[in-house]
Amino acid sequence: MVTISPRLDVDRLTRAFDGAPVVDNVSFRIEAGQVACLLGPSGCGKSTTLRIIAGVDVQDSGRILVDGQLICDARTHVPPEQRAIGLMFQDFALFPHLPVRENVAFGLAGGFRANRERVAELLDRVRMTAHIDSYPHELSGGEQQRVALARALAPRPRVLLMDEPFSGLDERLRDGIRDETLALLKEEGTAVLLVTHEPHEAMRMADQILLMRDGRIVQQGAPYNLYNAPVDRQAAAFFSDINVLTGRVRGALTETPFGEFLTPGLPDGAPVEIVIRPQHLKIDFDRAGQGPSPTSENGTAARAKVSRARYLGRESLVEFVTDHGGIALNATVPGVFLPPAGTAMWLMLRRDRVFVFPG
């Protein structure tokens, strides 16, 4: 049986500066044609990981393979230009003194004259044929990004590393250019590692997300899995706003304004965090004043009063304070929903959409 190696195999990578670990035992694999997003807050070790893979920094331990071939470990260090790894950065790094055709052909042996067909093919695919003789300063940000992408793909790299490549673009253009870029990368069959701190970008582009924190990958998998099964409260909060209820275990149960939650496996007195996304809070008017709390298969409703409501465009954000415990909770409602401050309402939640974590 033939075993096919992953296009990029990062195995137990570590890197420390002044004794402080910046990349801590990082491992992941990316297949050909797959897009992986290394996602995390600034300073978590994303860019250092990228630099080590590119070969411009050296790990303290661990190894990296491309198509099963070792490119670096404790004894081996293949130079960056021999790794078949392309790079694309947020500032595009186009050469201002060269026209578009020469920028795209820069990394190719023989330059533009020897690679006219490859340059023409890529410029056609990024819709920049009309600008083949233009200089970078004559292009918009989105056009420069397309040229940078064509240049990165021109040598047919096995792996393409992208460091915040869309952050310099106007927000109105960003989604469209991301989608165009993703389509081209898929066509080329290149394995892509995209570094970003934007969850929306990772969810939109990635086949798998590598969620990084304090130098470690704390969770990895398909976007759907990371969003719907976060490993902890911080992971849940990275992808959306959250509400957090706190409590303590009593007999494998934790009491909240929404009734009791099962918290098995935790000792009595252990702190618990119950996480609810705002879109999973359901609202009903308290038409009977202080009437009995409505109940359903999802548990007991919590009575609360509106403190503020705002319309955000596609949805409304309604802020509440619960009668029991004075807990602040936020709910989002599609469309326009702006109840006045002080309006009494019942809040209900979907228990299958609630995350329960040790405190």
From TrEMBL:
Keywords: ATP-binding, Cell inner membrane, Cell membrane, Ion transport, Iron, Iron transport, Membrane, Nucleotide-binding, Translocase, Transport
Residues of the ABC transporter domain: 8-239
Highest taxon in the source lineage: Bacteria
InterPro entries on file: AAA+_ATPase (IPR003593), ABC_SmlMolc_Importer (IPR050093), ABC_transporter-like_ATP-bd (IPR003439), ABC_transporter-like_CS (IPR017871), ABC_transpr_FbpC (IPR015853), Mo/tungstate-bd_C_term_dom (IPR008995), P-loop_NTPase (IPR027417), Transp-assoc_OB_typ2 (IPR013611)
CDD domains hit by this protein: ABC_Carb_Solutes_like
GO molecular function: ATP binding
Cited SMART domains: AAA
Descriptive protein name: ABC transporter ATP-binding protein
Taxonomic source organism: Paracoccus rhizosphaerae
